Amino acid sequence: MFARVMSTGIKKDVMDESIVEWTKHLKPYKDVGMKKAYMLLNRATGEYLSITLWESEEAQRKNAGSPAQKEGREAMTKKYFTGPPAPSNFEVVSVIE
Asked: Which stretch of DSSP H or E encloses residue 73?
């Protein structure tokens, strides 16, 4: 399993709107290899993390470069983020559930 973590800040006056938009944007990727997705938000500081888990590195990379993903990220950046999100990719090597 592979993860992509994106971090940036959220404009405080549109936090709740951003949660709805993020959910709509990410849901369709469940059909193309995304296993789970988490949006983490610190409402006091505006810090934002998005963590998506993918069935394979190939699925994760295919999504990261897709036109729909790029368009969604750009739209979220314009409306909700304080700056472009910084992506990082990781292999998931251990899970406790």
From this structure: helix 67-79
pLDDT band at 65 (very low <50, low <70, confident <90, very high): confident
Q: What is the dihedral of CA 19, 21, 25, 26, to 10 degrees?
A: 10
Q: Is the dihedral of CA 85, 5, 20, 67 positive or negative?
A: positive
What is the Cα–Cα distance from 86 to 95, expressed in whole angstroms?
24
Tell me: the pLDDT tens digits for 10-63?
999 999 999 999 999 999 999 999 999 999 999 999 999 999 999 999 999 999
pTM of the shown model: 0.91
3-state secondary structure 25-70: HHHHHHHHCEEEEEEEEECCCCEEEEEEEECCHHHHHHHHCCHHHH
Alpha-carbon Rg for the chain in angstroms: 13
